Amino acid sequence: MTAKRSKRALAVHEDQAPYHVNDDGKPAGRLKFIDLFCGIGGFRLAFERAGAECVFSSDWDKYSQTTYEANFGERPHGDIHAVAVADIPKFDILCAGFPCQPFSLAGVSKKLSPGRKHGFDDEKQGNLFFSIADILDYHQPPAFVLD
Predict the structure, then answer these.
(1) CATH number at 32-146
(2) Active site residue 38
(3) Among the options 38, 54, 95, 100, which is catalytic?
């Protein structure tokens, strides 16, 4: 990081992101990431600002898809269950805004009162962890980030 002092305040600017290198030490270009359960694109914004390239995104919510498309010029794929793991492009980092509602105290309390399932038994969101595990198992990326 470099810092520049102005009359008003200290401004901090991030240095250019380093290039990704192959095992042979030669530059491999930009890091590639996928953006699962992407919402409106928080992970994408951060990773692109760091110099990475998004090669795939997915979110089932139509309103999130519309906003994501307005923000980034491309519409995310829908339900991750409808995408074959082998059809996801090669990537270096899996990013996932993992849905926590089926596991959080607030989410579980909300589901218990009407007698709905929670945790891994929540068929809509609780089993998404297993989709992440399948993708990681198939693609074997060097890194992943779950939030």
Answers:
(1) 3.40.50.150
(2) no
(3) 100
